[in-house]
């Protein structure tokens, strides 16, 4: 197996662990098999133990559980349009001024400008 084809995602690693748990293998056996096949891209023994325990306890999903915290809801089409309108009206507007007008953080304004509008700062010196 080539190095490129042995790079699995975390979910694929978990699916393999789940399969071996269902076959009755121990975490140590699972880890050794995965290292034998995947070499450096194999998950750590600690991760194999953790997921093997979860699957033995009845877990069926290989996906991560949702994490607590506030979801990013600021980057919306509406905000992108508003920022684009402000920037096109005044090309010298500062991030903090745009953030103040829209009541969002400077970081999100910068993300929208750079990532969603594909705009960059250009110096004409």
TrEMBL record:
Limits of the Mos1 transposase HTH domain: 14-58
Name under which the protein is recorded: Mos1 transposase HTH domain-containing protein
Organism: Eumeta variegata
Lineage of the species this protein comes from: Eukaryota, Metazoa, Ecdysozoa, Arthropoda, Hexapoda
